Amino acid sequence: MRTFRTARTARTSGPHARLLAAAGVTLAALALTACNDGTGVRDEGASTPASPTASAPAADGSASADTGAPSGGPARQDARTAGGSSAGKATGASASTGTGTGGAGSSPGAGKAPSAGGGDASDPYAPENHVICNGSNTAVTARKVSRPVNHMLLTVRNTGSKVCDLTYYPVLRFDEMQWAPQPFAESRPQAVTSLAPGESGYAGVLLSAADGSGDGGGTGHRLTVRFHGATPNSDGGAVATPSLPAGGVYYDSSLRVTYWRSSMDDALAY
User: Fold this and answer.
1) Is 223 helix (H, G, I), strand (E, B) or coil?
2) pLDDT (tens digit, 9 = 90+) per residue, 240-254?
3) Torsion of CA 213, 215, 218, 222, to 10 degrees
4) What global pTM score does this model have?
5) Domain ranges within the chain, ordered by starting residue
6) What distance in Å separates the CA atoms of residue 172 and residue 226, rounded to the nearest whole number?
C-alpha cells in the first residue's frame, strides 16, 4: 500500500511520464484487488465515510443537513421564534400598560378641572364662562366732562357675579333719533374689554363739533344704550337707560363714540 501512495503522488515529467502512469494504474489495480476483504474496496489514502446512522455536528452545533435528524439547529430556531413571540407579547403588554397607565379611571388629568381652553367650569375668568355685559348685569351712567370739550363719558360697572364682556362699542340713541353714531375706528382695543364683578369699562362720546361745523343739532333728554352680542350688530340683551342732566345734552351730526375701553383716559382720547 505504501508503494501505491508513493507512486500516485510522485511528480514526473518528460518522456517517461506515460510509462510511469501506465505502471501506476496496473499497480493500483493489483493493490485494490488485494485489499478487497468482502466489505468493499478500501483505499488507505481516502477519508473514512460517515456512519449512515450518525453525523458529526456542524461548526455551530447543528446536525448535518443530510442526516434527516437535526439536533440543535431547529431547537434554536424554535427558541428564537418563541423568543420573538414572547418579545412581541411583552411589547404588546408594555404598550397596553403604557396606554392605560394606572388602569381605568386613572388617566392623566383625571379628577382635574379642564384647562381654560377646554372648558374649566371652576375658573370664572375662563373665556367660555364669560357673559355679555348688558343692562341686566351692569349699572350704566352718563355724564358730561369738561375736557375734552363737547364730550360725554359712559361708565359701565359689572354688578353681576360673572365676568362680562363689553363687545365692540355702545349703540346710542337720543330720544327718537333715527340713526346711530359710528365709532372711532382707531379707538378699537387689541382685545375685548372684560369686566370682573365690580369692575368698570368706559366709552367716550363726542357730542358735537367744537368749531360748530356740525349740522342737524338737537337736545337729547333721554338716552338708550344698546349692547352688541358676540358678533357685530347682534343683540347683546337688555338695554340701559342712564339718566341725563336735567337740561339734556346737545348733539349734532358730529356725534360719534369710542369702542369700549378699560381705561377712562383711553375712552376720552378721541
Assistant:
1) strand
2) 999 999 999 999 999
3) -90
4) 0.56
5) 1-34, 127-267
6) 7
